[in-house]
Amino acid sequence: MTGLCRSGKTAYPDEGTAEEALGAIRAENERMAPGRREPTRTYECDHCADWHLTSKPARRRRAL
Ligand SMILES: [Zn+2]
């Protein structure tokens, strides 16, 4: 399943694709817009079961 999630974010069909897109966005921002907020990780969506990018830190179950 690909396309638009109701979250409005771009959806990627699997983690590998999302990681690839994340890398491309980060590389481009580094050249074009340093310091801009950018996605930092991928996550599997609860709504559409696709993958999205987010700049929010991962929630940890417990502090290490
Ligand atoms: Zn989604």
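^ zinc ion complex. The beta strands are 41-44, 51-54. The mean pLDDT is 87.
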